[in-house]
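Title: Comparing notes on inverse folding

I've been comparing how different people in this forum approach sequence design from structure. To keep things fair, I'm posting one structure and asking everyone to reply with a full sequence. Here's the target:
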């Protein structure tokens, strides 16, 4: 990947390593950031605050500038946590805890 290094760009694999996640996680964040609806007609999880846009694409592979790392780290820190979006709402009169 001499081209990516030449312009101080990071591939998905390099970005994933810098963030401590798997490359597939970066891909999922990008897909969940699309403005369109998912296959079930629901708004995507990160549509309101999408993953930072790549500086360019080499073929179909996105590449980010290293200067974007602070922005990307801030996005990761601010994203909804595990379970965001929730599941089915509890029915009226029912409690989740057994008191």
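Reply #1:
Here's my take.
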């Amino acid at each position: 990947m001499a081209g990516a290094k030449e312009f101080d760009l990071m591939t998905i694999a390099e970005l994933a390593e810098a963030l401590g996640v798997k490359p597939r996680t970066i891909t999922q964040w990008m897909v969940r950031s699309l403005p369109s609806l998912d296959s079930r007609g629901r708004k995507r999880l990160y549509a309101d605050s999408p993953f930072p846009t790549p500086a360019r694409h080499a073929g179909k592979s996105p590449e980010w500038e290293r200067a974007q790392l602070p922005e990307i780290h801030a996005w990761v820190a601010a994203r909804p946590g595990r379970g965001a979006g929730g599941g089915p709402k509890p029915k009226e009169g029912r409690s989740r805890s057994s008191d």
